[in-house]
Amino acid sequence: MVELASSILAAAESGLGIMGAGIGCGLSIVGAGIGIGLIGGMATGATARQPEAGGRIFQSMIIAAALIEGLAFFSLVICFLVLFWLKG
Length: 88
Fold this sequence. Notes:
This protein is mainly α. It has one domain: F1FO ATP Synthase (Up-down Bundle). It is about 90% helix and about 0% strand. It has helices spanning about 1-15, 15-50, 55-85. The longest helix has about 35 residues, at about 15-50.
């Protein structure tokens, strides 16, 4: 445990921790964007095949997109907490 703490402090002093927080933040946002893009594309295709089910498809799409955005926001907050913890 002490070795892990010393390696975290060494990474903070060298700037690698800050760079890692930035990379983690970027990857989480890119992943959320890809997920929402896939949801939107598939919902559009499903609505084109069955226009009468458009309302239910839209509801499911909004719920899934909100869950993805919530996860992306959570990971963004975690990355910022790590960033400010390493700076301070």
